[in-house]
Amino acid sequence: MKLTILGCYSATPRALTNTTSQVLEINNHMFLIDCGEGTQVHLRRHKIKFNRIKHVFISHLHGDHFFGLVGLISTFRLLKREADLHVYGPKGIKEIVTLQMKLADSWTNYNLYFHELSSKESQLVYEDDVVEVHTIPLEHRIYTNGYLFKEKEGERKLDVDLAEEANINVAYYRKLKQGFDVENEDGVLIRNESVTRDAEKPKSYAFCSDTVYKEDIVPIIKDVDVLYHESTFLEKHAHLGPKTKHSTAKEAASIAKQANVGTLVLGHFSTRYGGLEGFKTEAEEVFDNVKLSGDGKVFDFS
Question: CB-based contacts of 235: which residues, under 8 Å, 6+ apart?
Answer without folding.
Answer: 248, 249, 250, 282
